[in-house]
Amino acid sequence: MSAAAVQQVIDRMPFARSLGIAIVDVDSRLQTRMPYAETVVGNPRVPALHGGALASLMQIAAAAELIRVTGAAARPPRMFSITAEYLRSAVLEDTLATAAVISRSRRFANLRVELRQASSAERAIAAATVQFRLVD
């Protein structure tokens, strides 16, 4: 499934729209981008992005990758669990996420997501393992 088709599915998620999430194809891999906005600042004194916004970005990036792999455009997959690891403070700039399927069975899929920013592109700022339920 193309990045544009995945973007159409993600655009049906109200919170993804409010975060301004954009899906792009970079070297045959999906990259999910959350643009910097004042609404995602968690602590203006540090200053740093809100951990909840980062976790949401990781969840949406994992869902986008799973939609691309499975072609499930009718409805987004249902998240079962997420384990987020915050590795360093997220500065006030755009944040990029990449996801990869770790394992997939008939009932569940596990994905690994990493977040990076331009100021520290060589090191991830956060990571997560996200599990989706594939059947109802």
Tell me what you see in this structure.
By secondary structure, the chain is of the alpha+beta class. It has one domain: Hotdog Thioesterase (Thiol Ester Dehydrase, Chain A, Roll). It is 25% helix and 38% strand. The chain contains three helices and eight strands. The chain has a six-stranded antiparallel sheet with strand order 1-2-6-7-8-5. A two-stranded antiparallel sheet has the order 3-4. A hairpin with a 2-residue loop joins strand 1 and strand 2. Helix 1 crosses helix 3 (51-70). The longest helix is centred in the middle third of the chain and has 20 residues, at 51-70. It is globular, with a radius of gyration of 14 Å. The mean pLDDT is 89.
Low confidence ranges: none
CATH superfamily: Hotdog Thioesterase
What is the domain tally?
1
Counted beta strands: 8
Mean pLDDT: 89
H/E element order: HHEEEEHEEEE
Strand content: 35-45%
Q: Please state the overall shape, judged from the principal axes of the Cα atoms.
A: globular
Question: Which structural class fits the helix and strand makeup?
Answer: alpha+beta
Please report the first level of CATH classification, the CATH class.
Answer: Alpha Beta
Number of helices: 3
Oligomer: single chain
- Share of helical residues: 25-40%
Radius of gyration: 14 Å
Distance N to C terminus: 23 Å
Spatially, the strands of the biggest sheet line up as 1-2-6-7-8-5
CATH fold type = Thiol Ester Dehydrase, Chain A
* Biggest beta sheet summary: 6 strands, antiparallel
User: Can you name the CATH architecture?
Assistant: Roll
